[in-house]
Amino acid sequence: MRIDVVTIFPEYLEPLNVSLVGKARARGQLDVHLHDLRSWTTDVHRTVDDTPYGGGPGMVMKPEPWGAALDAVLAEGAEALAADGDAAVGDAAVGDAADGDVAVQVPTLVVPTPSGRPFTQELAQELAGRSWLAFAPARYEGIDRRVIEEAATRMPVVEASIGDYVLAGGEVAVLVMVEAIARLLPGVLGNAESHRDDSFAPGAMADLLEGPVYTKPAEWRGREVPEVLLSGHHGKIARWRREQAFARTLAHRPDLVARWQQGAFDKKEREALSVLGLRWDEEQGRFRTTADAVEE
Ligand code: JBQ
After folding, report:
1. What SS3 class is residue 118?
2. pLDDT per position as a tens digit, 24-60
3. Which CATH number fits domain 219-295: 3.20.20.10, 1.10.1270.20, 3.40.50.1970, 3.40.50.1100?
4. Integer Cα distance of 236 and 248 in angstroms
């Protein structure tokens, strides 16, 4: 996968050289290119922002540097990927190739913004299936809207948010997204790790947080590892872990509990849910807690 990032703080993306993403780069599974947005400014002050039309606080990123940057990234990346002979597995271009019968590749443009769609595991999986991503993290109050609109006529654009809190800019959101995407690429995760049990991965563990984990020693500062984990009884261990996961999800993410369907649980699990105060409400089609009943 090729990844381009255009930013006014390329040094903020240094962590991409480290750990899982860094190793994937070193192995050639990930080809990351960082670009300084200011290299596409034309004034002596290298200005990238200006005051918002209509008034209001803060500054808005000017369209011209972003337009020139995206033009350059598109041209550079398309040339590199064509030279690689990668075109056959590329993403669909929004138009036809101008020359020859090989489609010109375009990236999927990912714009981190608090007003984007939620960046979920599902979106990470979708983006992990593309061969080329370009990220456009903004500082200040965001990028002039016309940049996004024009880009969308030339390539797929995804505006996404990593969560409901305020960041100073999109660079950290890029780090989050790239890590979530990179670990899904074939061969990036080692054998020891796997996607199977990820809390949010579709499949067995979907909508369920993972419970507590323990390692040696069996006693530490007077605290013992739960006995069941030392029992060697695999059935009991699996059930205990599932019950812990239920309790933790109820405590931290009642919104996930609201998505649970009764049919997903066997008799013993329903009993465990009942012990946690979770009862199936036939009329509402969802689990209700004792607290729900008190609210009404
Ligand atoms: C976010 F994606 C961005 C970009 C800039 C600021 C942000 N703040 C909160 N959540 O995902 C975000």
Report:
1. strand
2. 999 999 999 999 999 999 999 999 999 999 999 999 9
3. 1.10.1270.20
4. 18
| Residues belonging to the active site | 114, 141, 183, 198
278 Cα to the center of ligand 1, angstroms = 35
**With contact defined as beta carbons under 8 Å apart, do 229 and 255 qualify?**
no
Domain boundaries, the chain: 2-194, 219-295
pTM value is 0.90
| Residue 277: CB atoms within 10 Å | 14
In tens, the pLDDT along 198-234 reads 655 443 347 999 999 999 999 999 999 999 999 999 9
The preferred substitution site among 167, 171, 178 for testing ligand 1, maximizing ligand atoms within 8 Å of CB, is 167
The yes or no reply on domain 2-194 and CATH 3.40.50.970 is: no
Between the alpha carbon of residue 147 and those of residues 68, 109, 142, the distances in Å are 10, 11, 11
Cα–ligand 1 centroid distance for 234 (angstroms) = 43
CA distance from start to end of the chain: 52
* 158, two tokens: 């995804």
In angstroms, the Cα distances linking 68 to 62, 72, 148 are 11, 6, 13
